[in-house]
Amino acid sequence: AEHYYNWILQGAQAVVVQSNDPDLHPEEKSVLFFNGARSICLSPLKGVDENIGLLILGDDHNLNQEAFSSTKLRLINVISDYAASAIQRAILHERLEETFLETIVALANAVDARDTYTGDHSHRLAELSAQIGKVMDLPKDDVEDLHWASILHDIGKIGVPDEILNKKGTLTKKEWVVMKEHPVIGAQIVSPVKHLARVAPIIQAHHEKYDGTGYPYGLEGEDIPLGSRILAVVDAYTAIRDDRIYSESHTHEEAIAELRRFSGTQFDPDIVDIFCKTITE
Question: Is 167 a catalytic residue?
């Protein structure tokens, strides 16, 4: 039946095929959806620069009757044009989303390269966050949100100057004001991507603290999104374990002790308990 499809796609109008066409083989009848139909109408769905597919309609009227009148064919052609336009818009939107997402990931990788973390910090963070999410029996979509939030959590640092981002000493008050903007900037960068709509709030709140002393909004306890609370624990652990310009790496035991020390103040104590029981090294 492929030659029928190609033949229709090369044209611009709907074509009617009868089940008693002597040129049709049994296999072709099956592929063309002739089961239960005496006549079918194949209408091409054509985009601006590409063939999108076919609209196939069946009719079980008696072969002596006209199944698809000229009026019906005109209507089918109009429906096909509208359907092709809608499908192409959806395809273009999906491609735009994919391109935007690829661009954002590239920006996140650029931030990783600028920051003082070693290597693939964000990707290691994503693996640990997803692991904790699964242990907590979070829905699959929530685990995926955690994955993307981990990879993109510091993308807002693209707007932070290098002299602040990589400063070895203590930041000044003005420098802290700039640094504290990065979660909001990050959320603003990812929020236009439909696929990341639920990720933006996690990124925006990943520096909030359980006792309400974090930033940017001073959220407290369960007012902080669950994904952000998980990300805060995992991010702190990897930061302690990583070798950075202004800080040498520490052992797993030292990192766990630090999480325990700030459990209930900086971090959600339940998540700290789950993390410490799950991550053994």
Answer: no
What does pTM read for this prediction? 0.68
Do 24 and 88 reside in the same domain of the chain? yes
- Spot the catalytic one: 72, 140, 157, 194: 157
pLDDT > 70 fraction of the chain, expressed in percent and rounded: 90
Within-domain flag for 180? yes
Domain that holds residue 45: 2-93
As a whole number of angstroms, the distance between CA 148 and CA 199 comes to: 7
- Identity of the residue numbered 22: P
pLDDT at 17 over 60: yes
CA dist., res. 251 & res. 270, Å (int): 22
